Amino acid sequence: MGLEVPNPVPAQSIGNYDLVDKIAEGGMGTVYKAKHRDTGQVVAIKIVPATTARNTTLLKRFEREFVAARALDHPNVVKALEFNGATATPFLVMEYVDGESLGQRIERDGPLTEEDSVRLIAHVAHGLYRAHKQGLIHRDVKPDNVLITADGQAKLTDLGLVRDLGDDYNLTRTGRGLGTPHFMAPEQFRDAKNADVRCDIYSLGATLYMMVTGQLPFGNCSALDCFMKKLRNELTPPRDIKPDISERVDWAIRRAMSALPENRPSSCREFVEDLYGRSTRPPPPAGATATTEAETDVWYLVYRDELGETHSVKGGTEGIRRALKDGLLGDASNVVTCKKKEGPFLALRSYPEFRDLVITPEPLPTPDLNPRSTPTYLPPASPSGRWPDPARSTPTRRNSTPTDGSATHPRSGSGRFPMPTPTTTKTSASHRALEPARYVRPKPESSGRLPHVPIKPSKRRRFELLLWVMVLALAVGTSLAAFYIFFPQQ
Fold first, then answer.
1. Which label site among 42, 91, 145, 435 has the fewest CB atoms less than 10 Å from its CB?
2. Is the predicted pLDDT of residue 418 greater than 80, yes or no?
3. pLDDT value of residue 130
4. Is 365 helix (H, G, I), strand (E, B) or coil?
5. Residues 6 or more apart in contact with residue 428 via CB below 8 angstroms
6. Residue 432 has what pLDDT?
7. Is the Cα dihedral 98, 103, 106, 107 positive or negative?
8. How confident is the model at residue 86 (pLDDT cuts 50, 70, 90)?
9. What angle, rounded to 10 degrees, do the helices at 268-276 and 197-213 form?
10. Helix (H, G, I), strand (E, B), or coil: what is residue 99?
């Protein structure tokens, strides 16, 4: 529900409320600022237009918005207070937010700072996380549906397209995409009915993209062009537009906006962890033995070197990150770690502190060198018929610069583990070469026309024809000369 500059309205009333100002207007209704006639409570009222009131499906969807918003009691979701669908003019009473929409702020002031953008999108993610926990999918997360309060809090609104994962209401026909094209996940274009959590995460990433860059993802284009660009993952990285954006935020946005759903974060919590680079789970209980930050920032790692030998090391987060970037711990996808020496040890992708070093967002598509065709590049299918996860098969980035040896060996006498600098590069058995992309030839269009067959003779054909004419003329001339020689006229 995007807000506009309030416009005074004639003295009107609906139910027990007096309408004060017109706030916004959209396809699902008009929103007014109103006041309760008895209590004086200021609220926002969405009134269904007459055309929608006659549409049974849209009216059910309007009622669904109230049911969903009433069930979501969260400070980052606009509350629903009352619904009246029995009258000729159905209306929905909601919490009034004294502020503006995120879309309005971006349009007026341009891109937000990275700090404010991450803070506000985290608010939205928290509210959306609660909705997902209750089995609700929003399906229309975008800047215009995020309201910013006067004290700088973000609230998610407009649950008119929300979907309950536990019901079978046919409010969205299969194959019909609902939402806003630039912020929708590509699979939502084809079938909005089966939208899931990762569709909302894609929209979160697209919203954050516009917050930090001030530009629409994929630029100003039609819905069809936008859909094709999403399928080909033709997304300009945020850092290419604003170089001052941090690498972590750039990576988190591109991962959330991956074309394949399985390459995106699996939950809003994981998305927020990607942005901050640390876990958002509750801290350990008060009786924990670690009391200082230095004591808690200790990781135990198990890795294999290039010769296949297993080593155990420990160190702080920054020291281990430097060692991983420099390739001193071997293939990062084979490293397991834990905060406790006794385990359990999990892969690095399980921890937000190191996830960006082992998960690579989908690469940009290979440029098409033939402008007359638009081939599709697809990864080869596995024997099981499932497409492989590029995040699990893409090798990590490595450099050859040694670290300062900040990772320590737990059994070393000096407490320091000397990190050897590799002199030669060997390919371990764990490295898997990427298979070449398979070229899919586009199918020819069947227009019903007969194929064009050229009837103009080629140059070689014309030369042969001319040669035969010359031979024929020579034969005729020879015959005439012989006739006059052997049979002279009397």
1. 435
2. no
3. 92
4. coil
5. 304, 306, 308, 330, 331
6. 36
7. negative
8. confident
9. 30
10. strand
Give the mean model confidence (pLDDT) for residues 121-129.
Answer: 95
pLDDT-based confidence at 292, cuts 50/70/90? low
Task: Give the CA distances from residue 334 to residues 265, 308, 358, 407, 423, in Å, rounded to whole numbers and listed in that order.
Answer: 21, 11, 10, 17, 21
Contacts for 100 with CB less than 8 Å, ≥ 6 apart: 3, 147, 148
Q: Give the pLDDT of residue 283.
A: 61
- Counting other chains too, the contacts that 361-367 makes at CB distance below 8 Å and 24 or more residues apart are 361/251, 361/254, 361/255, 361/257, 361/258, 361/263, 362/233, 362/254, 362/258, 362/259, 362/260, 362/263, 362/390, 363/233, 363/390, 363/394, 364/233, 364/234, 364/235, 365/232, 365/233, 365/234, 366/437
Active-site annotation, residues? 140
Q: Strands, DSSP E only, in 255-333?
A: 299-304, 310-315
Specify the 3-state DSSP secondary structure of 100: strand
The structure tokens 């600098």 sit at 421
Domains of the chain, first to last: 7-95 (3.30.200.20), 100-276 (1.10.510.10), 296-361+398-420 (no CATH)
